[in-house]
Structure formats: C-alpha cells, structure tokens
Design a protein that fits this description.
This protein has 13 helices and twelve strands. It is an alpha/beta fold. It has two domains: about 120 residues, Rossmann fold (3-Layer(aba) Sandwich); about 180 residues, Rossmann fold. Helix 5 crosses helix 8. The protein is elongated and about 75 Å long.
Length: about 325
C-alpha cells in the first residue's frame, strides 16, 4: 500500500475539510506556530496548507526539503515568498474565486452603512429619540454618487456591477492591466481621476511592493472633502497614520476598513476614536459558504499531489 503524503496543516480549517484531508494524507499539526516549530514540522512534508495570515518565508520553504506545494486557503498570497517558491520549484495554490461574492457584498454593506447609519438611527429610536432622529435628513442615495474602484479584478468587478447595474451609480475604475469590457456601465480612468472625482473610493488590489502605501497623505489630500474610503483588500494599502489624521481633521467624509495595518489594531489606536470610521475585524470573506470554498484548498492540494511527478510544474 503506497504511503500517504505527509502534509503540514499549519492553521486549522473546518471539520469537514480536515476530514477530507485526513482521509487522503498523513496530517501534521504543529505544536506551536513560531518559526522554529513550523520549520521542524515542515521538514519531511510534501505539502503545506495555511491561511492568509501566516507568513510563508524563504526560510520556511527551504526547511521543507520535500515540499512540492503550498496551499493558501484564501485569495491573497502576499504573505508567501513567491520568488523563493518559484526558485525552489514549489507550486503555490490559492482559492481566488472563493470570496468574491462575500467580499463584494460586504463592501456594499460598508458603503451603505457610511451613507445611511442604520445602527445609530436604531439606537436613537431605542433611546426614545423618535422625533429627533426624524428631524433632519441623513446621507445620500448611492445612485447619486460616483464610485471609484481601484483594482477591477474578480471582486472589484463584482462591486462595480452591483453599484452600476444594481444602484445606477456612476462607476470609474483603474487597473494595471487591460480589463473588460464589462456587462455594466463603467469607465476606465487613471488613478488621479478617481482621487479627484469619486465620492466613494473602494480598494480591491493585492498587496505588492507597488501597492503598499497606495493611499498616503498626498492621495488623501486629493480626495473630495466628503469622499468615503473603503478597504476590504489589505490593510497596508493605506497609510494608517495619514488616514487617522485626515479623519480626525474631517478632511474626508469617512472610511470603512475591514483590514488595517497593523492587524489587529492595538487597543487605544486613534482610529478607534474617530467618529466617521467603521472598523471590522477582517471578516468580509467569512460567510459559511465563503469559508467552505476557501477550505476547498485541501482538494486542490491533494489533486496536485496526485499528479505524476514528471508532470509537476
């Protein structure tokens, strides 16, 4: 009977995914998640399965002398040293389609929450402030606005479709590659146009050396005073200090961040003290079905290992 492949499961998945993995592989679970423990655990494994928070460094990859594949349960591979993996002939797999709908819908939820503060209005009613809550209009309708999407990939395009075809908003977008045409109205523009014209800017780009700190103090200064900034991609796309200052000084209309830098924010971080910023704990993709689709990385890894070694690339 052939020996089962030895796979390091660096972070837990759901019970169903782990059962599928255990049925087809010898699963190694590290006793700790520090660098030394992970390097020891991966030393005789042919595959490593992790989630998007764990750093897969060159040293860790070098420690896996038999490593053939790294599977990331999620969209982002920015915490994997892709250059090292390529040099070592290690394939990196992820689940790029797993979270598209969930993240896009969460992005819209954040937009609407900034525009129409439902929890605050509900709390006013609970406190007996019925007449006060109704006394003045609040917010604007999404269809009146210009939405600027930076990164028109799977998730960005979903957001664009909902905003354009669903709400009737004007959609501007920018991407580093030629994307489209789309089955909804959207105009390709440069980033400068998005910064200056968008009422809402939504970020949907991966974290790379090129995009790190994409929204800095200079960019924030170019946004309209009422502009809203949404980030459901990666926290380090935004200069947190510059954003905090802009919010505290009311130089932009508000922000909603599902991701931050650092993540999580330490207790007492000044962003928690801003009245016009919504902060959520990196949960945009975490619907029940979204997680199941991400945890299907185990099937992709097992399928890759089942391929003849001569055909591995």
């Amino acid at each position: 009977m052939p020996r089962l492949p030895r796979i390091l499961l660096a972070e837990p998945l759901d019970a169903d995914a782990e059962r599928r993995l255990e049925a087809a592989a010898e699963v190694v679970r590290p006793g700790a998640t520090d660098t030394k423990a992970l390097r020891e655990a991966v030393s005789d494994c042919v595959a490593l399965i992790t989630r998007t928070h764990m750093r897969v460094s060159r040293d860790l990859l070098l420690s896996g002398k038999h490593l053939r594949v790294v599977g990331v349960a999620g969209v982002g591979t920015d915490r994997v040293d892709l250059d090292a993996a390529r040099e070592l002939g290690i394939v990196v797999l992820n689940t790029p389609d797993a979270a598209g709908d969930a993240v896009a819908e969460f992005t819209l939820a954040l937009m609407l929450q900034l525009l129409r503060p439902v929890p605050r209005l509900a709390e006013d009613l609970k406190r007996g402030m019925y007449r006060e809550a109704r006394a003045a209009p609040h917010g604007v309708e999404l269809r009146e606005l210009t939405i600027g999407i930076v990164g028109m990939g799977r998730i960005g395009a979903r957001v664009g479709r909902i905003c354009s075809a669903g709400f009737g908003a004007k959609v501007l977008y920018n991407d580093i590659v030629d994307v489209g045409p789309f089955d909804f109205a959207a105009e390709a523009v440069d980033k400068s146009t998005i910064w200056s014209q968008a009422d809402i800017v939504s970020l949907h780009v991966p974290l790379t050396d090129r995009t790190r700190g994409l929204v800095d103090g200079q960019v924030l200064a170019r946004l309209q005073p009422h502009a809203l900034l949404i980030n459901t991609a990666r926290g380090a796309l935004i200069d947190s200090d510059a954003l905090t200052t802009a919010l505290l000084e009311n130089r932009i209309g508000g922000a909603a961040l599902d991701v931050t830098h650092p993540e999580p924010l330490p207790p007492g971080h000044p962003l928690f003290n801003t009245k016009n910023c919504i902060l959520t704990p990196h949960v945009a993709a975490r619907t029940s079905r979204g997680l199941r689709r991400m945890f299907a990385i185990v099937d992709a890894v097992l399928a890759h290992l089942a391929r003849p070694a001569a055909n591995l690339d």
